[in-house]
Give the backbone structure.
Amino acid sequence: MKLPHHRSAVMASRSLLLAVLILLAASATLAQKKNKNQPPPPDPNAQAMPLPPGDEIEHDIGEMLGALQVGNIEEMHKYYADNATFVNSVYGPPIIGWQSWAAGYERQKAAFRGMQIVRRNTLIFPHGDMAWATYQWEFSGIETNGAQYSAHGQTTLVLNRVGSNWLIVHNHTSVDCSSLSDGNQQPAASPNAAPAAPPKQ
């Protein structure tokens, strides 16, 4: 028996609608399965796992030296206690306090228009709320007159945990005077009076 044209059109529309609904349901099911295989998005309120003290100090030394190379004294200050002491290989009294050291650094960094510090053989020893780190460094720079300058030496840092941060409370930097590229016995910029040349790491 032949269905009236109107009735067959309605049935065709219903069949098409049913097919569309089946496709939508299948797509939703596939999307749900796909989402189950993907990791959930990170929780913006989740706290990052704290680094072990040695890794945290390693990171902070790298950040501090990066700030030193670009002359960002405010960024460097984040890693030093206000009452930090500084000793270098040039005989003289220690420099006491961040502000005293920073004033010398600002004067000396003007002698260079570019510098690079490479750190090697870092050893870090956390002990409760105190830690010490020691490493070798190689410094190269271009003086404002265009001359090349290089030196190397070693640094020992003493750090104290204050709250959740490690702060440098003492910096002892020694320059190997035989490494100075200009042959002078006195570094052009001492690591403490100005870590600009031999780095005050």
Remarks:
- DSSP finds four helices and six strands in the chain.
- Confidence is low (pLDDT under 50) at residues 183-201.
- The longest helix spans residues 5-37.
- The chain has two domains: 1-44, 53-179.
